[in-house]
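@channel sequence for tomorrow's demo:
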Amino acid sequence: MSKPVVLVVMDGVGWTDKDHGNAVMHSYKPQLDELMTKWPHTTIKAHGTAVGLPSDADMGNSEVGHNALGCGQIYSQGAKLVNESITSGKIYESSAWKGAIDYVKDNHGKLHFIGLLSDGNVHSNISHLIAMIQKAKEEGVKEVRAHILLDGRDVPETSALQYVDELEDVFAKLNDDTFHGCIASGGGRMSITMDRYDADWSMVERGWHIHVMGDGKMYPSAREAIESLRKEGGYTDQYLPGFVVGKDGAPAGTIDDGDSVIFFNFRGDRAVEISKAFDYMNKGFDAFPMPKKPKVFYAGMLQYDGDLKLPDHFLVEPPHIEHTMSEFLVGKKVKSYACSETQKFGHMTYFWNGNRSEKFSEELETWEEVDSDIIPFDQKPWMKATEVTEKMLAAIESGKYQFLRCNYPNGDMVGHTGNYE
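structure tokens (generated this afternoon):
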């Protein structure tokens, strides 16, 4: 190559001719406007079957988008894989499912489900949770507890009670003399448990105290918790503080010795840290102090990190992605460079490389991360765009690389706050 090729991902920025709520259309963006009016361009689908999702009604997300960009192929993705596995019953034949059920029955323990409670189909789907709860009762599990993470990001920002009511109805129909299930704890996805890329381990620590220890503000029900916290702090769902459901000071369902825990998100990035906490708690884990380390059987919906083999147990095999762009370029001895800030660094590396944490070549691949700020992104919507740009320019001017890629997270991360202004 006489000149380098540069790929810039403007995460969360898309095209539509709809005017209402179109932040991109109404923004001051002279460079983009010039590119769209004076230079050749086209649009590509970033949702639905074009990126391996179950149907064209499913919106895309950063994970599947970077998988598709990085490998140039269509693979069945998390939601579709899980749907197929549940429909066929294959999920219940997995060693992880059988292990979780047997561990609970052998130890007279509880089966816990932790995950994002919505039908956003980006990280999880409530239908998967309900199917597994029903199957657990069918297989003789006596006690089930749900630890719910509220969405408000891939679904309307204050829609949590819709999903809480749906889950409560399921428990009400299933509960009898042989079975008892209920919601035991919860909190917003940007408040507890679902941190990613080591950005803020205190989120996972708060989740550990809430889910495992039942250590948090207690309410008689999830509905009362959500309604009270909204009134007290004006929170939208994703930022709702953690809460515990209980009565007379007794939590409805702490995670104890002899219990099994299933993390039912299928997307990996926000499942890795909580999985490390459970899998590594007795293996030198030091991201935060653990006052309680219960002896449990832990499983994820999928294997969230193939290189780390994390978690040890998982219900559904993840897509096995081969022949990625990075692998091809390394084979051709092409030097490449990747850069983003923390919030999307894993997308430019792990997801780009086909869900692979490690480089194909230390010599030919260079990755640079800019640390993200730990604040609500609408407070500083420019995020670290300047720093990413400076690193990209320096890499281009160095003449070392023939292919360079970067990700600007602003469109996605600021967009998710719902703050249009």
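heads up for whoever presents: The chain has two domains: 5-77+320-415, 87-316.
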